[in-house]
Amino acid sequence: MLELKKGDNILEVVGGITNIAEARELFESKIDAVNLEKLKQIKNEEALIKVANAIAMCQPDNVFINTGSADDVDWIREYSLAKGEEKKLAKDGHTIHYDLPQDQARLVKQTFYIINEGEKMSSLAKSIDRSDAMVYIKKYMPGIMAGKSLIVGFYSRGPVGAEAAIPAIEISSSGYVLHSAELLYRNCFKDFDAEVDRAGLFFTNVHSEGDNTTENVPNARIFSDRSWTTTFSTFCTYAGNTLLLKKGNHRFSVDYATYFKVEQQLSEHMFITGMTGPGGRKTFFAGAAPSGCGKTTTAMVGTDFVGDDLAQFWINGSGTLRAINPEKGIFGIVEDVNREGDPYLMDCLRGDGTEVIWSNVLINDGVPHWVGNGEEAPESGVNFQGEWTKGKTDDAGNPVPMSHKNSRCTLIASAIANHATELSEDPNGVPVSVITYSGRDADTMPPVWVARNSDEGVVIGASIVSKATATEVGAIGVNRQPWANAPFIPGALADYMEAQFTFFNSAKFSESTRPVMSGLNYFLTHENRGSDGSGLLGEKKDVKVWLGWLELYANGDVDAISTPIGFIPKYNDLVSLFQSIDKEYPKSLYEMQFALYIEKIVARIDLQTEAYSKEADIPQTLFDVYAKQKSDLMELQEKHGPIVNVEQLL
Ligand code: SPV
Ligand code: MN
Question: Which fold, 265-325+425-649?
Answer without folding.
Answer: Phosphoenolpyruvate Carboxykinase; domain 3 (3.90.228)
